[in-house]
Design brief:
With 549 residues, the protein is of the alpha+beta class. It contains twelve helices and 20 strands. The protein has helices at 33-39, 183-189, 221-231, 248-260, 299-309, 320-326, 344-356, 370-410, 422-437, 448-494, 500-514, 520-544, and strands spanning 7-12, 17-25, 28-31, 43-46, 57-68, 71-72, 78-79, 82-87, 99-100, 105-112, 121-131, 136-141, 156-159, 165-172, 178-182, 197-198, 238-242, 290-293, 332-336, 360-365. The longest helix is centred in the C-terminal third of the chain and has 47 residues, at 448-494.
């Protein structure tokens, strides 16, 4: 967590900090185009992590042909916003860093120069996956207050465990989220950066579209739409398809989807939008982290590629599954020709490890044979059955213990000022009925993600409602204690002399507090009337030097 030598503080001529940069080579610094624009003149690059008594500073200018201004497509999705600066004097080669091609969902840290931290600071975040059509990745802060504000634009985004830099911060959203461009997106916009980027590309060349794939006759539109939905994350963790060896249309459609979703070299990058085909068949760029053609490959080779994409260190042969099982990162993986691998059973075991760890899988088989049937049962049917069972258990908790606890609380206090939560209970009962009457066939199951969100909303809503009722119950108990205390004080002050008016106020407050459900509002008013009267009556008696009348 020390100050990285590759972190560059960028200043404009008047001394104001305008952003951050990443030293990619002795004389090249990567940053955002809007940082360059905001400088509105000469830029000075400062190297705060350098091993020197003073912070070295070097004039910088935009490298010719290495400036891509931010623009927005027809849907309003941003893209670009990248620039490469050339330093007037080179820095030590050991201070530079390489960009790594890594999966896009992981814990990260980023080093920038926000206001109040001119010397730089690390912030932590979670890369939650792709967004928009430019292959950008959303970063969500994991620590309150660690929000990447002005001064973080151009900051390097590093893996939280290994420290490998795999992206750059672009912009910040008002809700605290910010966005990064991963290495592949940067390379697509600035081909010059490829020289400073390491790691294999995300896509096997055999899975890229060819010139023969552009024919409209080779587009299987329903299949293309299903692929696009999964690549846009439709909530299904595992999708399994069969593309026969002689099915040219499906094979071309699959290659089209993989190519369109590639961050680094999307098939649509150089083509007008109108040529992409029906909009529903066009996936988002960055819909997967790795696409592998398994034909002729051993499981160990595929596992090594997955581990590399996750940024895991090399592991001894035979221990890859254990390493992947313990990995904190996940990925969206496309494997084509699962049944054409050298050892399909071993590959299916590996894919199960990934599924159990939270990775998303798009698996393509050549035939509906034994490997396909096993994958369908173990990766789709059984998990769906277990997922539904967990969901049913959760909904039964909502309609059972949580509902009963809620009714018990409502029997004790009136829910003044609280919005009714009966709608949650009705929805939970309806969802439970839907889930228990349907068969186990995943194809006939409803959208489980929707029911899971409903269940969690119901749990959160009922729990919050119960907490508010508990506060009302505590207030009721507090009022009872206050009433008893004032009763004792008044009896002591009165020295046995009765006061029917005060006693009537006490009896009313006492009755309201004993009534179930208790109307806390009325009880508060009644207790306040009693204590106010006692305070006034007893004070008068003290002024007269005797008992109250």
């Amino acid at each position: 967590m020390e100050t990285p030598r590759w972190a560059v503080r960028l200043r404009r001529a008047n001394g104001d900090i305008v952003g951050t940069g990443i030293l990619l080579s002795p004389d090249r610094v990567l940053t955002c185009a809007h940082v360059v624009d905001s400088a509105n003149g000469p830029i000075t690059a400062e190297f705060v992590g350098a091993a020197a008594p003073d912070v070295p500073s070097v004039p910088a200018r935009v490298d010719e042909g290495a400036y891509v201004q931010e623009d927005r497509d027809l849907d309003g999705d941003p893209g670009g916003d990248l620039a490469l600066l050339e330093l007037e004097r080179p820095r030590p080669a050991a201070d530079a860093v390489r960009l790594h091609r890594l999966s896009s969902r992981r814990e990260v840290r980023m080093y920038g120069f926000p206001r109040g931290h001119n010397g730089g600071i690390w912030f932590r975040a979670l890369a939650v996956g792709g967004c928009g059509r430019d292959g950008q990745v959303q970063l969500a802060p994991t620590v309150p207050g660690e929000v990447a504000g002005p001064g973080f634009s151009g900051a390097g985004v590093a893996d939280g465990t290994t420290g490998e830099v795999f992206g750059m911060v672009l912009t910040r959203h008002p809700d605290g989220h910010c966005f990064m461009a991963p290495a592949e997106t940067i390379v697509r916009h600035l081909p010059q950066v490829q020289a400073f980027t390491v790691g294999p590309t995300a896509v096997d060349d055999r899975l890229r579209s060819t010139g023969d794939d552009v024919s409209a006759d080779l587009l299987d539109e329903p299949f293309a739409q299903r692929l696009a939905e999964w690549l846009r994350d439709d909530g299904r963790q595992v999708k399994i398809s069969v593309v026969g060896p002689d099915d040219r249309a499906r094979a071309a459609t699959l290659r089209r989807a993989v190519s369109l979703a590639d961050r680094e070299r999307p098939a649509a990058a150089a083509a007008p939008r109108s040529s992409w085909g029906p909009p529903a068949t066009v996936p988002s760029i960055g819909g997967y982290d790795l696409a592998v053609d398994a034909a002729g490959l051993e499981c160990a080779e595929i596992a090594g590629r997955i581990a590399g994409r996750l940024g895991l260190p090399p592991c001894p042969e035979g221990s890859v599954s254990a390493v992947l099982r313990a990995a904190r990162s996940t990925l969206d993986l496309v494997v084509v020709g699962v049944d054409e691998a050298v050892d399909p059973p071993d590959l299916l075991d590996l894919l199960e490890v990934l599924r159990a760890g939270g990775s998303r899988l798009l698996l393509v088989f050549r035939t509906a044979g034994v490997p396909y049937l096993r994958a369908r049962e173990e990766l789709v049917v059984r998990p769906a059955r277990e997922r539904r069972a967990r969901l049913v258990e959760r909904l039964e908790e909502v309609t059972g213990p949580l509902a009963r606890a809620l009714h018990q609380r409502r029997a004790e206090v009136l829910p003044h000022g609280l919005r009714s939560v009966d709608a949650y209970l009705v929805a939970a009962h309806a969802a439970l009925a839907d889930l228990t009457r349907l068969p186990d066939d995943p194809a006939r199951l409803p959208d489980l993600a929707r029911y899971e969100r409903l269940a969690e909303r119901a749990v959160a809503g009922l729990s919050a409602y119960a907490e508010r009722l508990d506060l009302l119950r505590e207030r009721c108990d507090e009022l009872g204690g206050r009433l008893r205390g004032y009763r004792v004080l008044h009896q002591h002050a009165a020295q046995g002399v009765e006061d029917p008016a005060v006693d009537a106020l006490y009896l009313r407050a006492h009755a309201l507090l004993q009534t179930r459900p208790c109307d806390v509002r009325e009880a508060e008013a009644a207790v306040a009337a009693y204590t106010h009267r006692v305070d006034g009556t007893d004070a008068s008696a003290r002024d007269r030097g005797g008992a109250p009348r």
